[in-house]
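Forum: Protein Structure Q&A
Topic: Joint prediction for protein chains with partners

I've read a bunch of threads here and the consensus seems to be that you should model interacting components together rather than docking separate models afterwards. I'd like to see that in practice. Below is the full input, 300 residues plus whatever partners are listed. Could one of the regulars post the assembled result?
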Amino acid sequence: MNQPIVRVRELRKSYGKLHAVDGVTFDIERGEIFALLGPNGAGKSTTIEILEGYRHRTGGEVSVLGTDPATAGLDWKTRLGIVLQSTGESGSATVREQLAHFAALYPDPRDVDEVIAAVGLEEKAKTLIRKLSGGQRRRVDVALGVIGRPELLFLDEPTTGFDPQARRQFWELVRSLKREGTTIVLTTHYLDEAAQLADRVGVIAGGRMVDVGGVDEIGGRDARVPVVRWRENGERRELRTDLPATHVARLVAAGDGVEPEGVEIVRPTLEDVYLSLIAHTTDATDIGAPSDSSREEVAA
Ligand SMILES: Nc1ncnc2c1ncn2[C@@H]1O[C@H](COP(=O)(O)OP(=O)(O)OP(=O)(O)O)[C@@H](O)[C@H]1O
Ligand SMILES: [Mg+2]
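Posted by a regular:
Agreed with the consensus. Here's the joint model:
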């Protein structure tokens, strides 16, 4: 069997007394889109930045593209694409200049203008990055993440600040990258985005993996039973059932073929499943607030 492209075993990261990541285990297979979901402070960025080689772990095993990120070199890094949650983008170059500059650092970069078009910045190609709007700047971050034609792309809340149209365009970009064989690790608080894009999902809370599995399987079968809703004599009725169409047919038969009022079949969304998964979890294992001296800078 092929080795997973990302292999994480019992990963731990402490900031002083705070166990930000507290024994997390998962694999990511080549070619899949894996979404890491969880509340603010769950440990998503910490986990991803350890995989990217930006942060040092406290414990556990990590292998990314067959290499330990803690000791990996520049060759390894050129095979990754990275969109950090926050970037210190200075912006004294134009969009096109910045992308061309970064493209030159990679052995087999994508075409700069194609990438500009893919993120919808054609009209801003000659604009200074610092003069862009927040959402436009975020699109530059995404463009910089994909310019090097990465095998493995990390996207940490890539669409924050995107308008709905930009988000749809981004989804198309991600799908086309997947078709080309790119493996993608994504975090997002937009559960519809995760449902649209992800093959598999990991839900992390308080530094622990609550569940990991297929986007249509996570949370278990019980969390996914559909609900039939209708009105009877003006009153709202509902039934949770694995056979919703059968129930609707029964309603129709019972009414001598008359269309029942207000019928709908509602299936729990990924957001519903996610909320029930994290409902019983607590915040990160915070044994006293971390002191200032425990704050660790992100290594460049
Ligand atoms: N450099 C740091 N020094 C000290 N504590 C940190 C540092 N970075 C993160 N933390 C703490 O670690 C925990 C996990 O943070 P992390 O950024 O991984 O969360 P996240 O899941 O990415 O959250 P969000 O959805 O808000 O981005 C939080 O409690 C955070 O305060
Ligand atoms: Mg984060």
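Residues 164-179 form the longest helix (16 residues).
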